[in-house]
Design a protein that fits this description.
By secondary structure, the protein is an alpha+beta fold. It contains ten helices and nine strands. It is globular, with a radius of gyration of 18 Å. The two termini are about 25 Å apart. This is AraC-like DNA-binding protein.
Length: about 260
């Protein structure tokens, strides 16, 4: 679904190397112990716990016991929450793991089996419910004085439209009418990452889609705006915790 990815997986041992992405990662452990490093601490998620990892926060993933772990996760672009929050700072859940029943209930729809089809209106309602639950649990304040949500949204739209080429700060300043430093600060507040990271992530989104269509990694890297395949691989591994070839194996269900 646009702006949303859902996965269900089982891992033994090490699952992901340290990485970060510009989406929320919100999930639930179904069996076993899911262990990950997050914000200078080791976290442990047990069955029934809800995980809420903030955009652009480094984390990894591994089994906490020899039995492995089973989990479901939904990755949501912050822009979808901003459609509901209207320029409030993005909600942050301290520690990344919670037993708050409000979040457990608000994630039920999106954390169903990934094969379950979610209707468009159902998706809209689920996103709104989850955004409001996150804001309530984290006690997200109203927009801070001086924050310019409209300009940040213009910058995001511009980066979307030009994601497969080099974009300069001067271009973004011209497109939004804001100076680069204020805009970068506001962009992080409202979308959880920097403009450059956001641009890189859109390239990686396009890269994954091309990989699934069978395009070679060399051709993918050139098509989506990376300097070469090694350049793309470095960014890919930092974002998804594994190199492109391994990700493609998992995405296609190949062991």
């Amino acid at each position: 679904m646009e702006g949303i990815e859902r996965i269900g997986a089982f891992f033994e041992g090490k699952a992901y190397a340290l990485h970060r992405h510009d989406t929320y990662a919100i999930g639930r452990t179904l069996a076993g112990v899911q262990t990950f490093n997050y914000r200078r601490g080791m976290r442990h998620s047990l069955p029934g716990h809800t995980m809420v990892l903030h955009p652009d926060e480094p984390h990894d993933g591994q089994a906490g016991t020899g039995e492995g772990f089973h989990y479901r996760m939904v990755y949501i672009e912050p822009a979808l929450f901003q459609d509901v929050l209207g320029g409030r700072a993005l909600p942050f859940i301290e520690g990344g793991v919670t037993t708050d029943v409000r979040l457990s209930m608000a994630t039920e729809t999106l954390l169903q089996q990934p094969s379950h089809r979610i209707e468009p209106l159902e998706r809209h309602d689920a996103l709104a419910e989850l955004a409001l639950a996150l804001a309530a649990v984290s006690r997200t304040p109203s927009p801070r004085a001086g924050g310019d949500f409209a300009s940040a949204r213009l910058a995001r739209d511009y980066l979307h439209a030009h994601s497969q080429r080099v974009v300069t700060l001067e271009e973004i300043e011209t497109a939004t009418g804001r100076d680069r430093w204020s805009l970068s600060r506001d962009f992080r507040t409202f979308y959880g990452t920097s403009p450059y990271r956001y641009l890189t992530m859109r390239r990686l989104d396009a890269a994954r889609a091309m990989m699934l269509r069978g395009v070679t990694l060399t051709d993918v890297a050139a098509a989506v705006g990376f300097a070469d395949q090694s350049h793309m691989t470095r960014h890919f591994t930092k974002t998804y915790g594994m190199p492109p070839a391994r990700w493609l194996q998992i995405a296609k269900g190949v062991r």
